[in-house]
Structure formats: C-alpha cells, structure tokens
Write a structure and sequence with these properties.
single chain, alpha/beta, 7-stranded mixed sheet, two-stranded antiparallel sheet
Amino acid sequence: MIFTWRELPLADLAHRIEELAGAARPAVIGLNGHSSSGKTTLGHQLAATLPDGAVLHTDDLAWHQGVFSWDSLLINDVLPVVRAGAALSFRPPAWVVRGREGAIELPSDLHYLILEGVGSTQASVRAELAVAIWVETDEPTRLGRDAERVAAGEISTASYEGWMAEEKAYVTAHRPWEDADLVINGGDSQHGDRHGEVVIAEGWRKLRS
C-alpha cells in the first residue's frame, strides 16, 4: 500500500477521533502497528490531548501470556470495570504466578481508553473498539529501534525473535492497516513538530470506502 502523507496538528487528530468514536463513553481506541513503530509515543500524546484519556499497553496484558492471547483478559477483566466507570487495579494471572510486582492501573470515569500494542485491533477485540488506528513506520527505522531495545536489555534476543515471528505471521495474514479508520506515520523523517503534530494518511477512510 502506498500512502499519501500530510502533517496534521495533534489537536485536529484528537478531534477526528472524537468524531469517529461518537457519543458512547468510554470509547476504546485501538492503536496498532509493528513493534517499535511509535505506538507508545502516540498513545501518550493522545491520552494527554483527548479529555479524560488513559493508555493501556497490551504488552502488560501479554506479559508471559502470549503476543496475541491477551484478548480474554481485556474483554473479561478490564473492560467491564472501565465501562462501569470504576478505577482499575488488575494483576493478570501471569503476574501473580511469576511474582511480578504492581498492577495495571487505570483511573475512574475514563472517556477514552487507548489500547496500545501489536494486535490491538485484532479480530477478537475489534467489536470492542470505537476507532482503529494503524501506525505505519518504515522497516529500517523499526529495526533500528528494536536493536536499541535489545541492546539496552529491555528484551532478550531469544524473546525478541519469538515475538517477531508471531508479529510477522499476524501482519502478513491479516494486513491490519486495511481495517484501520486512520493511518498515522510513526517514522522519524515524517515528523515535523513531534509534540504538536502527527503525519496522517490523507483521505484514508475515503480510499477504503
């Protein structure tokens, strides 16, 4: 797929998401993309721009659970609490078994929950989402960022290779950008003011219709 890009103020992107999400609250925004595509950065930017927003990292749900098999935890343990307007403090089963400290914390009365991570718009959770976003980033940039994470010890080489094998199989089979409502460029060279602007695929929804 060839995208035509243009810069867009972050506030305008937030407004577009609000329009797509409609009136239902909390609205769950799926922020999907390859590993190291820039999803986390964009997720936190959106959480700070959208009213009463917060980020949930699928990496936390997937920790020793499986790259894509965290969906039941989201649907059965997280969303019922969030949709009831309550604060969440959730320790996934793998956290308990392996003694990981802390919990996944989300505040009460959320208006926007940004579900950030590889596979966050996968078919098993798509019905739970108000908006699906794909972050598109060139492979050399992604691989360079991945190499820095491995070198820093954030993930072992073996774990990284296993993760990427699952990620590549998912992306090849499902082409998730084709089901996205919005496509954002996460590459370094495409950004102007990284704190105030994003780079968006122009007319993406129109092209898909």
